[in-house]
Input
Amino acid sequence: MCEGCIPMPAVVIVGAQWGDEGKGKATDILGSRVDYVVKFNGGNNAGHTVVIGDQKYALHLLPSGILSPGCVPVIGNGVVVDLKVLFEEIDGLNERGIDTSKLVISANAHVIADYNRTMDKVAERFLGSRKIGTTGRGIGPTYADKMNRLGIRVQDLFDEKILRQKVEGALELKNQILTKIYNRRAVEVDEIVEELLSYVDRLRPMVADTPLLLHEALAADKTVLLEAGQATLLDVDHGTYPFVTSSSATTGGACTGSGIAPTEITRVIGIVKAYATRVGEGPFPTELFDDDGERLRKNGAEFGTTTGRPRRCGWYDAPIARYAARINGVTDFVLTKLDVLTGWDRIPVCVAYDVDGERVDEMPMTQTGFHHAKPVYEYFEGWHEDISAARTFEDLPQAAQTYVLELEKISGARISTIGVGPDREQSIERFDLL
Ligand code: GDP
Ligand code: IMO
Ligand code: MG
Output
């Protein structure tokens, strides 16, 4: 970069709750303004729905930037890749006229082998009532292999001898566990190697040293958007452990999962829903079990993009938003799905918790504390007008404006964009995101 030049930004998008906040839509909106979109964590456990006019796309493994013709989509080293799903998703998009030829995949990304999917499913069954409610895509076992130094990386597929050795190493213990503990058949090394090798020819041209590529892009004043899968409370370190996913879904993970240094990041955009949802097991203080919950689910179409499971629904939880703001260094929030709250006379917002009779203003330190946390609500006036056509803040009814401004005061960062519908166009930009 030239001397004295101001570096163009690396911008991070993270989920501020338990996922499904609308990260895909936010990434898509910014896609036309950036040069690269990098997925840095997770795998095909993610499900991002992007609506462009009358077309609806459900993305799982590919970065949402794949839908923006001008930008280069990158699968970073922090991602776990199911190659079958990868090519199915690419083929599906190609059939719909989407060009995927710019896609780049990190040589260091780990591969989800068939035995990882098996391990995921049998482990959940084995856990019984203590299950996590995973997506069953093999995510946890693949990250466990990575940490155990038994993982298979994309680059390993280019050296058959190495690949065979690594698969043998991974299966040595796994086959003992599968046969002796889970009563399943042993997995053959050959069948795994053969399947993985069948993808090599198609894969090879897409693979690159992505940290180097991204470093050079930033040095050439390009803009890089780092897109998280999952969300802060599903992060393996900062989430509601053990009811989390197995990767780093927060800003720290954006660095390790892409090879971009923290000093390059100039903006962190937290995506937060105007209420809250969660899929799978685990604590959720504002969860609703009544008609309001049912209404949020119906109005918000809260059914999983990946597994089709009904999402658990509840009111907005400000301590969680503040927590996400702190952990990620959120500079701007995108508040999504405000339109879903239309039609309530008053809207509760959780401003603190009651933990065993004591008021607690922030996320409790312990798992037990969070399990015991009961929401302390403040109530805001609702609105009944249809807001889906609003394009400026002033277009919103006064009560909706007040709701947004009050959330902003208690959520730890400014609310720069507001979502009023699933379509690309259904957004209100109060402050520029880029
Ligand atoms: P992600 O995993 O964070 O990308 O979110 P999902 O795509 O799984 O879930 C968000 C859902 O809400 C998708 O179906 C989006 O099309 C939809 N959506 C996003 N923003 C808005 C919004 O502002 N209003 C409404 N009604 N729907 C939205
Ligand atoms: P996006 O990117 C919501 C949840 C699962 C389960 C837990 C662990 O669409 O926001 P895993 O299969 O990852 O080991 O499951 O995490 N989960 C998600 N929930 N949105 C997601 O992704 C999720 N990815 C995983 O339901 O509770
Ligand atoms: Mg989702």
User: Anything to note?
Assistant: The chain has 13 helices and 20 strands.
